[in-house]
Design goal:
It is a single chain. By secondary structure, this protein is an alpha+beta fold. Helix content is 23%, strand content 29%. The protein is built from 2 helices and 7 strands, in the order ββββαβαββ. The protein has helices at residues 61-78, 96-110, and strands at residues 2-5, 17-20, 35-38, 41-47, 86-93, 117-122, 133-140. Strands 1-2-3-4-7-5-6 form a 7-stranded mixed sheet. A hairpin with a 2-residue loop joins strand 3 (35-38) and strand 4. The longest helix is centred in the middle third of the chain and has 18 residues, at 61-78.
């Protein structure tokens, strides 16, 4: 589902921004867009390893990572894009030393050449203590 927001707030430059959301939209209560389309790009907010009921799928990194990428894919689809349209990936990982090899596995499973630019970052924690990876992307809008 996309929602066009054409706000001509003085000096704010928000004209032509479209909000992209899926149902259910777990971000709405927090006043966060799952994604926005602006300037020919789709910017997807960080996605984690939770299912459509908002439950963490597992404790292990790969299962959470696969779900996070599936959630990214779902949000992109709501905006009319696919993973092949991704040009930039941000990965937030709680234990890079332990999971760097798994990061490469996820990249190979979900992305393809030419691989997007990527910034993997180790963080001390994510919004929930059991979450081990969060994935945000920027993609070309179709």
């Amino acid at each position: 589902m996309t929602m066009s927001v054409d706000v001509a707030a003085e000096g704010q430059g928000r004209r032509g921004i479209e909000q992209i959301a899926t149902t259910p939209d777990w971000y709405e209560p927090y006043k966060i867009s799952q994604a926005v389309r602006a300037g020919g790009l789709i910017h997807v907010s960080g996605q984690v390893g939770v299912d459509e009921q908002g439950r963490t799928v597992a404790d292990d990194f790969l299962t959470q990572g696969r779900q996070a990428f599936a959630n990214v894919e779902r949000v992109l689809a709501a905006g009319g894009a696919v993973l092949a349209d991704v040009v930039k990936v941000g990965l937030f990982v709680t234990d890079m030393a332990a999971d760097l090899g798994h990061v490469s596995t996820l990249r190979e499973e979900f992305l393809s050449a030419p691989y997007p630019a990527e910034t993997p970052v180790e963080v001390s924690s994510l919004a929930q203590p059991e979450w081990r990876i969060e994935v945000e992307v920027t993609a070309l809008a179709r």
